[in-house]
Write a structure and sequence with these properties.
Strand order of the largest sheet of chain B: 2-3-4-5-6-11
Strand order of the largest sheet of chain A: 1-2
Order of helices and strands of chain B: EEHHEEEEEEEEHHHE
Helix content of chain B: 10-25%
Strand content of chain A: 25-35%
Radius of gyration of chain A: 34 Å
Order of helices and strands of chain A: EEHHEEE
Structural class of chain A: alpha+beta
Distance between the termini of chain A: 63 Å
Oligomer: heterodimer
Largest sheet of chain B: 6 strands, antiparallel
Shape of chain A: elongated
Largest sheet of chain A: 2 strands, antiparallel
Structural class of chain B: alpha+beta
Number of helices of chain A: 2
Chain lengths: 107, 297
């Protein structure tokens, strides 16, 4: 069976397309213009971020906190009685697994 | 595969103890702070009137213990409404005597589906059949024992699961003390993003902290408030999913939600045949992709 023909130039296979000088220039211009635009927008972006941080950091005064009391503490999940599931596989091997939060597979 | 179960006094290995720090808000639903409505959180909870109607109190204050939303995100495994008796006050605050809690409402949200089941219970201690498939690592054949002490300088909530054959085997406890000082009433994100970025101190935000025995005499600095408790819903979600991964690695099997039409759990919606007299409200999953299958959860 014959292999399908490949695109060739002068008999040499070209698995990847070559970039022309014009394409390289276009890519460079794209990145350069994006960087320039980013630099131009940077002060405004910083100001916006600072404003956001200031808004978040603004103290919530008496008027804003009169209806809320905050508590700090810890949530703990505790096991009272672990349960072991002993199992025997189809090949006869035995094992033990601890299934603390599960009972539904038990008979 | 042949499987049988037995209880062990000293098991060979166990999944790790799961704990994480929280900073919760106790909100006066009759006079909530502006951020409660502005963040959209008010729409996700009962109103004061609805809570009073459910609890059977005519005009008593209603306070909600919950995890404040952060950046539009919520992660509240359980919120508790404290419904105070008529004619009395709410929790002791600012030298004011506290009222007596007549009833409480638990608002349980399952993970990862985000469906919510609310039901009344006696805060002094109450037992109810498990009415929601809360976690994929636990089945429905359980009974919940709930207890929520009246909020004062401390607040505590306990939910214990009991299996009909194996007895009590799991408990989730919240123990917290009231914040004091200048930042006591501020939300956790008060310090701002800039403080978080330039502050390397992690506070007690590593998941293994202990609740202090007494209220802190000095307010925590803004940086600690932020780095320890900022974006608590996101942190809580991260801890929950990390624990889920640990349980999967340990070999704990998954339990799917009960099938539609089942007599236990979510499909019973507002009527649980095992506990018909209790007030219940069910709200299905709200977020994609679970909302599409909300009826089956």
């Amino acid at each position: 069976m014959r292999a399908p023909p490949r695109a060739t130039r002068g008999g040499c296979p070209l698995p990847v397309p070559l970039l022309t000088l014009a394409q390289v220039c276009a890519l460079f211009w794209t990145f350069a213009s994006a960087l320039a635009r980013l630099a131009a927008d940077l002060p405004a972006a910083l100001l916006a971020a600072a404003a956001l941080a200031a808004r978040v950091a603004a103290p919530e005064g008496a008027a804003g906190t009169g209806g809320a009391i905050f508590y700090e503490g810890v949530v703990k999940h505790r096991r009272d009685k672990p349960v072991v599931h002993e199992f025997r596989s189809e090949r006869g091997a035995r094992g033990v697994r601890v299934f603390v939060w599960s009972f539904e597979r038990a008979p | 595969m042949v499987v049988r179960a037995r209880a062990l006094t000293h098991p060979p290995h166990l999944p790790p103890l799961f704990s994480y720090p929280v900073r919760l808000a106790l909100i006066d639903l009759d006079n909530p702070p502006p951020w409660y409505a502005a963040s959209g959180q008010a729409g996700a909870h009962l109103t004061a009137a609805a809570a009073r109607a459910a609890a059977g109190t005519a005009a008593g204050p209603v306070w909600l213990l919950t995890n404040p939303w952060a950046a539009g995100y919520a992660q509240n495994p359980i919120s508790v409404y404290y419904c105070y008796a008529d004619g009395g006050g709410g929790p002791p605050h600012g030298g004011r005597e506290g009222g007596s809690v007549k009833a409480a409402i638990a608002e349980v949200t399952n993970t990862p589906w985000g469906a919510t089941s609310s039901f009344t219970f006696d805060p002094a201690g109450d037992t109810t059949p498990k009415c929601m498939h809360v976690s994929p690592f636990m089945g429905m054949g359980n009974e919940w024992r709930l207890k929520a002490g009246p909020p004062s300088w401390r607040v505590s909530v306990r939910v214990a699961a009991t299996h009909p054959a194996h007895g009590p085997y799991f408990a989730a406890d919240l123990a917290a003390v009231r914040c004091v000082g200048d930042g006591a009433g501020a939300r956790n994100e008060r310090a701002g993003v800039g403080v978080l970025l330039r502050c390397g101190r992690g506070g007690r935000g590593r998941g293994g902290g202990r609740a202090p025995a007494t209220p802190s005499p000095t307010p925590p600095p803004s940086s600690l408030l932020h780095t320890s408790y900022g974006y608590t819903p996101h942190r809580t979600a991260a801890w929950i999913y990390r624990q889920a991964a640990a349980l999967l690695i340990k070999g704990v099997p998954l339990h799917g939600p009960p099938p539609k039409g089942s007599t236990v759990g979510a499909p019973t919606r507002s009527r649980d045949r095992r506990d018909p007299d209790r007030w219940r409200v069910w709200r299905g999953a709200v977020g994609w992709p679970w909302s599409a299958a909300a009826d089956g959860v």
